[in-house]
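thought: user wants a sequence for this fold. calling inverse folding tool.
action: design(structure=
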């Protein structure tokens, strides 16, 4: 089955073609980062307009790259939510109209399910069940996964998502947008012994997370450095290092707790923040110590992309699921509401 995948929930336009017998045939991505950088974050209306400009040319480019014709397609998957409503509607309308014209089924995919299943695009695929740490710009979740569509939310963030905390930290240190890679790159030059930031909520039982206090701690540390005439690039780097270590440690502690609670030893880490070097290293150490397994998407599939949507949609289309002609985007949508593909 040949499936075209379209992602347009935020600031990346992603298109891919997934073949259920041969795997990923082609994928293209257009990022709007430059467009939004001068505003310090995503401007929803500009995002929608840019998706309109870029999506159709990208679809044609991806078909050409895969060396297939539109009429070869068996189905179309698009991100139906969660995300920015205008941006989602661009992908949904293009996908739905193409499917109608070609008389093939279309399926609206949950963006976070796309992230969660992204490691399945790699050669080594995790078996079910597993614990998934899903960390992106809008979400930080710990989920027990028993199959596609069988998701039990074990822990969530009470305030900022992990990626949001990276983005806000970068903003207050004037590092630009998006913050994750900026903070992480500067942290490489930081001294890990200079500051010790708190590990939020690790003393409390449970798997919920909270990152807004860490952001305030960062702000206070930076302001104090300014008062002490020590607001140097080195201080910024030291703060980035302390911040990143605190996030990585907190996530590792929560993952360990989730694995113990559920009696599992297989961990999947996905979403934009799973690209982070320090977080990967901490989780690798944790799983090596436990003699368990850990899976990540390749770096380019950690952040938003069309391949993960094509993959998730293809599994649902294969199981006979599809979305009706009357397309709708769902800006707020819980993963736990999804149907299993086996029922
Ligand atoms: O999954 P994603 O592309 O979009 C959402 O669904 O939200 O995640 C984007 C988030 C941003 O907050 C970005 O700062 C963060 O992922 N991110 C990182 C890294 N690369 C991207 N955070 C930490 N370290 C990174 N290397
Ligand atoms: Zn995402």
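)
observation: tool returned 343 residues.
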């Amino acid at each position: 089955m040949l499936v075209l995948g379209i992602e347009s929930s935020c600031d990346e336009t992603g298109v891919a073609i997934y073949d259920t017998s041969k795997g990923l045939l082609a994928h293209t991505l257009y990022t709007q980062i430059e467009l939004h950088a001068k505003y310090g974050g995503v401007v929803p209306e500009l995002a929608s307009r840019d998706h309109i400009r870029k999506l159709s040319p990208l679809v044609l480019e991806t078909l050409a790259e895969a060396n297939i014709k539109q009429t070869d397609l068996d189905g179309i998957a698009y991100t139906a939510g969660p995300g920015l409503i205008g941006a989602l509607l661009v992908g949904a309308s293009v996908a739905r109209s193409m499917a109608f014209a070609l008389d093939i089924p279309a399926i609206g995919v949950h963006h976070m399910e796309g992230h969660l299943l992204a490691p399945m695009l790699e050669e080594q695929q995790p078996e079910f069940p597993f614990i998934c740490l899903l960390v992106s710009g809008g979400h930080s979740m710990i989920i027990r996964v028993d199959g596609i569509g069988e998701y039990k939310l074990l822990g969530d963030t009470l305030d900022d998502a992990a990626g949001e905390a990276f983005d806000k930290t970068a903003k207050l240190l004037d590092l630009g947008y998006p913050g994750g890679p900026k903070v992480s790159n500067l942290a490489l030059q930081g001294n890990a012994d200079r500051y010790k930031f708190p590990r939020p909520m690790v003393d409390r039982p449970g798997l919920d997370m909270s990152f807004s206090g860490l952001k305030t701690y960062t702000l206070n540390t930076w302001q104090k450095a300014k008062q002490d005439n020590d607001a140097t690039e080195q201080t910024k780097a030291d703060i980035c290092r302390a911040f990143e270590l605190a996030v990585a440690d907190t996530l590792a502690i929560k993952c360990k707790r989730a694995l113990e609670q559920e009696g599992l030893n297989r961990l999947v880490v996905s979403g934009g923040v799973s690209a982070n070097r320090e977080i990967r290293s901490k989780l690798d150490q944790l799983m090596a110590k436990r003699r368990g397994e850990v899976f990540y998407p390749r770096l380019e599939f950690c952040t938003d992309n069309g391949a993960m949507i094509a993959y998730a949609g293809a599994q649902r289309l294969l199981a006979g699921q599809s979305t009706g002609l009357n397309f709708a985007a769902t800006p707020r949508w819980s993963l736990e509401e999804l149907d299993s593909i086996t029922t």
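thought: summarizing for user.
answer: Here is the designed sequence. The first strand starts at residue 2 and ends at 7.
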